[in-house]
Design a protein that fits this description.
It contains two helices and two strands, in the order H-H-E-E. By secondary structure, the protein is mainly alpha-helical. A hairpin with a 5-residue loop joins strand 1 and strand 2. It is elongated, with a radius of gyration of 39 Å.
Length: 113
């Protein structure tokens, strides 16, 4: 075990040179102008997509909020209309009862079989 740790901590035997190999120029290993342009394009495209996505999500949330408010107002109007009639239907009968055409009130509050 001691030999393994000693082997891992020693420096490699030819030391790496700090410069480039023979025959390779710096232009061959750097991205250059085209690399910069492509990277800038992808950053710009990603930014625009994120802004568009946030705008669409905000629009969907706003529409859902408006729809909830509209439904709440409609329910409040229905409750207010029922209170104005004193819980009576249009023909003066209790709410949920309608005339079945034979002079008798038919109960509509329960589903029929």
């Amino acid at each position: 075990m001691h030999h393994l740790l000693l082997a891992l901590t020693t420096t490699p035997s030819p030391l790496p040179t700090p410069g480039l190999r023979e025959g390779i120029s710096e232009d061959q290993i750097t991205p250059g102008l085209w690399g910069f342009i492509m990277t800038a394009f992808f950053v710009l495209a990603t930014t625009l997509l994120i802004v568009d996505m946030v705008r669409r999500i905000r629009r969907v949330r706003y529409r859902a909020q408006v729809e909830e408010e509209r439904q709440a107002a409609a329910e409040a109007a229905d409750i207010e209309a029922a209170d104005d009639h004193g819980g009576l239907g249009a023909a003066g009968e209790p709410a949920g009862l309608e005339d079945n055409g034979q002079g008798q009130a038919a109960d509509r509050s329960q589903p029929r079989d």
